[in-house]
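fold-stage: in
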Amino acid sequence: MRFIDECEIRVEAGNGGNGAVAFRREKYVPLGGPAGGDGGRGGDIAFIADTGRSTLYDFVHQRSLRADNGGNGERKDCYGRAGKDLEVRVPVGTIVFDAETNERICELVTPHERVVVARGGKGGRGNKHFATPVDRAPRKAERGEPGEQRSLRLELKVMADVGLLGFPNVGKSTFISAVSRARPKVADYPFTTLEPHLGVVELGDPHRGASRHFVLADIPGLIEGASEGHGLGLRFLRHVERTRVLLHLVSLSDEPGRTPLDDYRIIRGELKAFKPELLRFPEVVALTKADLPEVREAYPALRDEFAKLDIDLHLVSAPAHDGLRPVLQAVAEKLGV
C-alpha cells in the first residue's frame, strides 16, 4: 500500500428529517388534535484514530464521505429514525484542516480518539408542537436542518519517539533494519527511502531485569535546500515534529570538500529553516559504516571535531551490528525510558 500523508476530501453530514403534519383519526374522537411526529436527526461524520492504519491511501480514490439523512416524522406521533453516523478510521497522528479557510479543526494523536468533523442537521418539529389555544389544528411543520458540508484537508505526521535523520545513503534504512523488525528497501542510490518507516526498538537492560523500548522513524533522506522544497525533504520534514529525540547519522562521502561535520550543520540548518524549535530537541550523533577501514581511520579526528561542539560522536556499523547498543542506550537516556 502506498504511503500517502496528505489528501483532500469532501464530507457531507446527513440532513435532518422533516416534521409531519398529521391528525388523530380515531373512532369516537371526531376532533382529534395534531399528531405529526418530529423528523430524525441527520447522521454525523466522525474520524476515529486507528493504530492499525499508517497511511491516508484509502482517501485517494474516495472524493466524498456522506452520512445518512434522518427519516421524516410520521402520523400518530411517530418520530423519524435518526440517520446513522458515519465513522471513518484514520491513522493516529492525522491533522484535519478546513480546506477553504485553512482552519485547524482537530488533531488525532490518541489511539481510539473520536472527533466529529461534520454534524448532522436537526430534525424538524411536527405540527403537534405548533398547537395553540387559537389554532388547535395547525397545518404547519418544520423542515429538517441541512447537515454540515465542508471540504477537509488531511495531513499525517507519523508518531514516533525518535527521528532518524541524515543525508541520502548514510545508512538510515540499514540502521533501522538492524535495530528493529522494520524492513525498508535498502540500495546504494539516493532516495531509496520514499516514505517514513517505523520500527520498534527493544533494548534489554540487565540491571533492571526488563527491556526498554521506543519507536524509531526513518525519515526519508534530506538534502541542502530541503526546507525550500528540494529533494524529498519538504514533504517529510513535518514528520520530525512528532519525535522527542533526533538520531543524526553522518558518513564519509566521496564528494570533494564534503565532510560529516558539514553534513551535520546543513541538516541542522534545514531543521532551523523549517521550524526553529526542532533545534532544541535532544540529539544523538553517530558516524556510520564503521566496517570500512577508511571510516575507522578517520573516526578519531572526526570525534575531536564534534567534541568541540560538545557532541559525543558514536561509531556504528549496522551490517556488522557493531556499536549499536551504545547508540541505542544514549537514545534511551535522552528519552528517559
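fold-stage: in (second)
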Amino acid sequence: MLHAYDKRESVGIYFWAENGGDETISSYMMANGVCDDWRDAVDKQHIAWLRSLPAIIRDEARGLVFVHGGIDPATFPNCSDEVRMWTRSQKFFDPSRWPKRPELEGVVVVHGHTPTSDFKPHANPCRINVDTGACFGGPLTAAVLAPGQGPRFLRA
C-alpha cells in the first residue's frame, strides 16, 4: 500500500490493487468520500501508522524473529527491509544452506508471504511458515508459540 501510495506508477498500484488494494480503496472511499485520487480518501494518520511499523520484530530472549517474507541467512540481522518483506530465496527456505554463524544460533524465523503447497504450516528448527494459502482458498493460520513447547497452529 505504501509503495502504491508513494509512487505514481501503474505497476505498483495495479499489483497492490490486485492483492486487496481495490477493496481497501473502496473501504476508504466509503468512509471518507469518493475522490479523484484514491490517496486523498486515505486517512493521513493511517499512512503515518503504516510507515511506523517495523519490518522485523525480534524476541531475543526466546530466539524468535518475526518478518513477513524471511531473512537472508548470510547477512542476518543486517538484511534489508526489502528482503524481510519479499524474499522467496531458496537459501532461506532450506536450513541446510544456512551458513554457520553465531547470529543464527537458536534463531527461529516466523514468516508468511510464500504459501505452502499443501495448505499446512511448515515448521523446522530454523523457520515456521504460517502462510497456508488463505488467498487461494486455504485456511488462515496463526502460530501459538508457548515457552518451552513446539508450535501449535490455529486454523480458520
